[in-house]
Design brief:
Blueprint lengths: L9 E8 L1 E2 L2 E8 L5 E4 L2 E3 L6 H13 L2 E15 L7 E13 L9 E8 H4 L16 H11 L6 E3 L1
Length: 158
Amino acid sequence: MSHLSRTLPMKRAAHVYLVRDGHLLLVEERMDDGSIFYGLPGGKALPGETLGDAAVRQVLVETGLTVTDLMFVSLLEGELLTGTRNECYALFGRFTATFHGEIDPTDPEVVGVKWVPFAQVESLVRYGPPPEVEERNPLIWVPTRDFVQGQPRAYYPI
């Protein structure tokens, strides 16, 4: 089979940079191996759902906050996890937004929600195994690093 005829499943996801007083809101999730993973609120889009609608829905479930006035920040696009059982073509949108409400996650996988100073965000990121976990791919965190440094780009080819 030639490379051109290979069809990859599409993974579409949206995450939101929620900012308050130089802090970024991160969610804490427990991974299968018991470790704590810090990530941006957001997640996979459902079939037929826009990235914007996915962002609003996922942030509400993961944090309890209602987001409005989504502003596009960046898009990551490209093949991810090539050669693993989870290989896919990724379209990951990043947004900022206005938000209101109280922190009250209803997602059972979320064990905490934390405002983290910009300077500490990168120190919480864990890279490495298992390789199927795309959130631990360093490329996924480059846009966040750029965002907290005040230098986001609009497009990140993976």
